Amino acid sequence: MAIAPHLPSVAPRLLWHQDVAGWLLAAWEAVAGRHAGYILRADLHLVRGALEHAGGVQAPDGVELTTAVERWGPYADEGTADLFDGDTLLHTELTPGNVLLAGRRVHLVDWARPTRGAVWIDTYLWALRLMDAGHTAAAAVDWACKVPAWHAGDREAIRAFGAAVTRVWHEIATEQPTAWKLHMAVQAAELRAYLSLEPDQADCVPVAGKHEQGAPARRLRRLWSGLVGRGRPGGTVDAQVSGGYLFRFKSGSGHLPPSVSPPEPSSHHSTAARPLTSGPVRPETHAWM
What angle do CA 92, 202, 100 make, to 5 degrees? Predict the structure, then answer.
């Protein structure tokens, strides 16, 4: 609760809290609103404005917070973790369920994992959630470019963070390979791939035709061999995402339950991953995450 007085004005206010029989009872301001629709352009403009406001809030001194370096540093390439450092108070879990809209007012709720770090990190994580909602990587980065905080990060820092986030979601999906976690791992890898294949996009440089799907799969395979690394022995599961890209997850436990598969496409997930095959890795097509 120590962070509550320091949250930005787009967060509900903490009214009171009390310890009761070993439990923390907290009363927050009630918000009568609906969850943001990340496929709705009008909602995205409102959320973009809220991120612009929240990006100007510094993490308070005297309040113990996890830092971005501590949180994502263990998954970063050697020598890059310090690029995540900063003094901004970050939300870090900008799912549609944590964004409530009351008319044109935006409320960012559930500050369960506040973090001190670089100002652009929340925008990167928002772009990843936009992909989870069905946007292409190009469209998600376009929205990120509309947030001023994004421009505070240079391409080296953003790409380094993408590598760390991809490894985090790979680990999550490996340890608990449920459908939504596999899907998030695929989206994290695809966002990283896009920013690596099109490095100018981290700087928001316009590129003609960038919204077209389907860069050659062999281009991604070359990328994986140089970028991802950290493969571990075990079973495999393949997933195909927008553009026909093939991603292969490898489980450190030796197998993935055969019943587990990424979600089928729907009106909500227009770029949802589909299960393909499982079995031995073909060296010419595998890609470690």
Answer: 30
Residue 234, sorted as left (phi over 0), alpha (psi -120 to 50) or beta, turns out to be left
279 φ/ψ sector (left φ>0, alpha ψ -120 to 50, else beta): left
pLDDT tens readout for residues 16-53: 889 889 898 888 898 889 999 999 999 999 999 999 99
Question: At the topology level of CATH, where does 4-275 sit?
Answer: Aminoglycoside 3'-phosphotransferase; Chain: A, domain 2 (3.90.1200)
Q: Where are the domains of the chain?
A: 4-275
Q: What is the pLDDT of residues 176-223, one digit of tens each?
A: 999 999 999 999 999 999 998 887 778 887 755 554 443 433 444 444
Q: Which two tokens stand for residue 190?
A: 């695809």
Residue located via tokens 């553009």:
243
How far from 195 is each of 79, 94, 130, 159, 175, CA to CA, in Å?
20, 20, 15, 7, 26
Name the residue with tokens 């899907």: 183
Question: Which candidate, 167, 172, 211, places its Cα nearest to that of 189?
Answer: 167
* Residues 239 and 278 sit within 8 Å (Cβ to Cβ): no
